[in-house]
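Protein modeling request. Please complete all fields; requests missing the sequence field cannot be processed.
Requester role: graduate student
Desired output: 3D structure, token encoding
Chains: 1
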Amino acid sequence: MPIRQKRRKTAGAAIVSLALTIMTAGAIAHGQDQPFPPEAPVPLKDVFDVLRELRHKPPKDDAATAMVPGKLMTAFTPYIAANSSNGFMIGGAGNVAFFLGDPKTTRLSSAVASLSLTSKGQLLLSAKLASYSRDNTWYLSGDNRFNLTSQDTYGLGTNTDPSAQVNTKYNFLRIYESVYRRVFSGFYAGGGFLFSGYANIRPAPASEAVWPDSPFVVYSEQYGFDPESQFSAGAAASFFYDNRDSSIDPSRGWYASADYRFFFKGFLGGASEYQEAQYDLRTYFGLSRNSRHKLALWLYGDFIINGIAPYYGLPATGMDTYGRTGRGYLQGRYRGEEMLYGEIEYRWTIARNGLYGLVVFLNTETLSNKQAGEKLFDALATGAGVGFRLRINKHSKTNLCLDFGVGKSGSAGFYIGVQEAF
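Delivered output (422 residues):
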């Protein structure tokens, strides 16, 4: 058997094995609501409780008011960080959680926003929304971003040379807004508006000499795209099922979604007509009483089905809604017409009061490059790492997430978030 074919079959078996693990784990979780004896209850605590203790102030008894419809449960943290994508970063990230109806019949809604300034001259602004109406009749989601940024770009597929990056600057705007109606139980159907634009695309000063032969320029010229600005706009038909106990920090349950997206040439400046299909499958289950030890599993797929997408419209590492795929690699490190991704994460809430914890994660992804004949599973990009969790709002279960991940060929990254990766 040829070595390449053997590797592809081995990689495919690994993805299938992970999928079967997710299905089996989810079935176990669904069938065992409380497989362990309960622990004696311990009052929950977050970082603001600790600050009150340090200031010798009494605990704030706001558990009852936090569950009142319309009451905002806020969590905010400033941060200073550094990584190879952004350089030195300073900024802040926040989460707002709330109920729009009776908490007994209405799921928790949340909004996440962040703003960062970097030593590489980047401005990164994002706002994400996941909101349930009273009695869960309607669901609204939003993924909005405005970036003045730069990114190392590579060729397509999972076999690209890590030393052949070309740093590219651009302005990025994304507006993805969707509305869903509950069909039954936790199943929803809906649709949305999609717009993403990349403008003022140009090489960084250090990349000017290699710019004409860069993967971005070669791809754009081959398919007739403007190398200075590229836009995509259209609509989506979407479905999802969700029976998790929390969308911010789940302990049990399933989440499954499927999207089919239509992009139209000429609509709001759209550069081409193409269709994109996505699926997202997640499950969670406890390994101990009160789920202080638990596993989270994730399978994700993104595929260009018909037509030709602009270079930045192709599936890529870290370009999912919350930018959490591929910890261990730079955003955009791998890009291709098709993408499959899997991840498993062990979560340990060390403190019984929920104040802090640790995670360990392992992920892998594979992308295609049809121009070069590279198919899914011809190569894998695997990442792994550890993370620290600090509870910044005990009522909404919101954590400050600090992760460090490594990947192949010396890749590494540090990641900050205010919700779990998935």
